[in-house]
Amino acid sequence: MSLLEVRDLKVHFPIKAGTLLQRTVGAVKAVDGVDLDVEAGTTFGLVGESGCGKSTLGRAIMRLTEPTSGSVTLDGQDILALGERKMRAVRRQFQMVFQDPMASLDPRQSVESLLTEPLRAHKIPGGSAGHAKRIRELLDVVGLPESVVHRYPHEFSGGQRQRLGIARALVLNPALIIADEPVSALDVSIQAQVINLLKELQERFSLTYVVIAHDLAVVRHISKTVAVMYLGGIVEQAPAADLYKQPLHPYTKALMSAVPVPDPNVEESRSRILLQGDLPSPANPPSGCRFHTRCPWKQATKCDTDRPALRELPLVAPGHKVACHYAEDILAGKITPHDVRPEDVELVPAGETTSGTEAAADATEAHVAGGLTPGGPPGAH
Amino acid sequence: MSVNEVVAGEPGGPAPAATESVSSRPPRSLGREAVRRLFRNPMAIVGMVLISLFVLVAIFAPLIAPYSPTDNSWLDQVRPGQYPGPSAEHWLGIDPLGRDVFSRIIYGARQSLLIGVVSLALGATAGIALGVLAGAFGGWVDTVVMRFVDIMLSVPGLLFAIAVAAMLGQSLTSVMIAIAVVNVPIFARLLRGEMLGQRGADYVLAARSLGISRSAIVFRHVLPNSFTPVLVQGTLTLALAIVEAAGLAFLGLSGSDPSAPEWGRMLTDAQETLTSAPMLAVYPGLAIVLAALGFTLVGESLREALDPKFRR
Where's the ABC transporter domain (chain A) (predicted)? Predict the structure, then answer.
């Protein structure tokens, strides 16, 4: 049975207008109909570019951002139906690790206070002696010496702070940990240490992870299943190896083709899919398939009218799901990519390198280069 | 940051490559670090000396002042247009009503300190309460509180002080209330803005996801982290309150007893003899400036010491 089940989850942020009498004039559909199933003891990777709604999805599952509609079921319990008091009790079962470890630790709180606070809040038995023992265990588990208990966050390095963040997430013995970009704020050398720590902890405490990231390599390294998000919806979901070997959705294909290959010969000759245009506004998403405005495989029918559901394509591998009307045809090579001409972007034939209109190509490349640009505006390097 | 400091502080120690070591010096809270920085700042030292001087003088005025501030036994030494200047008996001379100026300045510190502290306490308490209310709840509570504060802000301070004096009569209480009310919106807006900023911080989300209650988050995390600018503002407000109190006294709003030693009133009185005895205006003026300067220097140094941007 799945530990976490998310059904048709929507998070719409209202856009208000008017100074005195505010009325809602629209909504930013940050998450728009997401289904997820995360099995106990596994890692679920969630990738997507900046602004696709992956962090909002994570926070909505945690109920840190209140979802507009849909359901989140944790261990058989529908958590969206819970009142505030019950919800606080349920929070023991799932925790979050944040992107920026400095921002996620209260600068005025010592390590001891940081780790004791949740124990006290949930009235975990053991008294101060028991709590102190638990804290020492935790510090040991995340690889920090016991001597740090009286220290403050600003006295630690970035990697150590993230270890503290992880220790805090573990205090209440949760079953599920949602890690929102757990390593992207860290140096590359520290990234590996923290990722390995997460893996080690998973084995030791049989934890379930949902890892949100824009770094495709990180997600591949730790995930069993990976889902790709685009503009508030999941476009493809598959076992990690399968997804990286055989992406079916045009967006995933473009994403994968942007990952540099560490071989100059291959890098020189391999074909790349350069997407045109920018991510459309989630306040006014395209009709039909969200991706049809930028899709090189867009067909005359269905794409701009019907929103494709996430469906399993068992002919490739079990558990490989894709939200594309023409996934089979694309896989079979029946339809070929063609040029995309958004009004505001110059034309570059898909699959060609940046010859000619470099500026336009650059703009899109920034979005997908080496994974995805975190928080960068289109065209930023 | 901390690691580099340690490496730099230990010549011949391990190479800086060991990025994951934990420093061995005693732990320091942010507050203690700030105090350390504060005491290293010469400006802060000057300010603190001025403040201590001011406070000590105010408290021990009867011991320091050679005469009573209302004793006019030297009236016979005063001639129209001729007022005895500094002498061994009267360090700052005698005023037109035959009183010892030095003693009056010493006693005046009491009045200024009293008005400053009381009006700050009143204004800050009310402002902080409103700020916490708006910052902790947000939404419509925030809107209502902030519109109320805006209304307070729209009334000119001096006009309000005159109105209060007209309603409650000329008294010290009116002055204190007037200065306090002027300060309420400043504190309310400052704290509310800071709290709203902190509310969206990751550590607040983390606390929420840990199931910590709303009130604990507000009072244990959001409020302490929003309080720094309020502390700084409080120090600076004391300086302003002293100047404002003097200003109100100058306009004759401070109290019904004209003989009470009050720096602002001394300025008013000195105005009449400005051509013949200009120094009578300089002494109280200087006292006001030094007291206000002390609090301003400490306030500004505090801001520097507490500002994360100055943190090493």
Answer: 15-256
